[in-house]
Amino acid sequence: MSLSRKRLLQAIPSDHARQVDAYHYLGRIPRSAQPLRLLDLGAGDGRSFDVVRLHHPDVEWIGLDIADSSEVRSRTRTDCEFVTYDGVNIPFEDARFDAVFSRQVFEHVRHPEPLLREIRRVLRPGGRFIGSVSQLEPFHSNSYWNFTYFGFATLAVDAGLELVELRPGIDGVTLTLRNLFLTGLRTRSRSFRHYFDRESPLNLLIGKLMASDRLDAAEAAELARLASFLSDAFPAADLLLDYAPPAQAGAREVNAMKLRYAGHLCFEFHRPIEGETT
Ligand SMILES: C[S@@+](CC[C@H](N)C(=O)[O-])C[C@H]1O[C@@H](n2cnc3c(N)ncnc32)[C@H](O)[C@@H]1O
Predict the structure, then answer these.
(1) Which of 23, 31, 40, 138 has its CA 20 to 30 A from that of 243?
(2) How many domains does the chain have?
(3) What is the DSSP string of 76-101?
(4) In terms of residue numbers, what domain contains 210?
(5) Which of 105, 139, 142, 264 to mutate to test the pocket of ligand 1 (most atoms within 8 A of CB)?
(6) Residues 121 and 196 in one domain
(7) In angstroms, what is the span from residue 168 Cα to ligand 1's centroid?
């Protein structure tokens, strides 16, 4: 069944509108008596192993990746298990994993649709497909695609996964500027790093305009930086003054707006349990 607009909106949460990242969804996997069986799809250098172990110390972690990419070549760790495959056919039996984690991988996947069907196959019923993917991020590390949140969710639902939740990651303007400075202009700026861990400037702006979010001094400074950058080309200050905000938007509306302009999308899908309707 393909994804309806109504179902898409239901997957946008209303509890809070803060930016998250892929690791957010590791923290939502409940602990159980059995060790978590987790596949990191597109594991790169294996950095998720440490984060997963914070939540699930006895995790059975397997890192899966293609034979060659700059991230695979940068791999040095030997304290976890890596498996190499052809990029589509996951070399594990049906229902082998409780969770498939995939952080910033699908924009690099040459054949996303068959791979999504493979993810469904190797998840146990009720198992989770969690992570993040690029929406508004310029070309990087041989990326092929940019998915809209509707597009990515549609591909996953068409592959037989159930959409549970979508949240905004770092915003697309900040991510574009980061790419320009670090990749295009090859500067050494470190100031973009922390925008992955806390609200990035466009996300702050959206929260401020739609929900009158209170900003602390550091956040106000980030926003001023964005406004001064934009004002070189656009009358940003005038636009902000002109803007008549709607009556206090709720968290779901703010999340929907942040998702529309997100650089990274963060997601949770489940393999449906037979007989259960959603
Ligand atoms: C931007 S890196 C992200 C690496 C890692 N997930 C992380 O968070 O650091 C993209 C990764 O996707 C991998 N990749 C590309 N095509 C793939 C495919 N078909 N299946 C699995 N991984 C793939 C690359 O080899 C690379 O490790």
Answers:
(1) 138
(2) 2
(3) ---SSEEEE--SSS--S-TT-EEEEE
(4) 172-258
(5) 105
(6) no
(7) 20
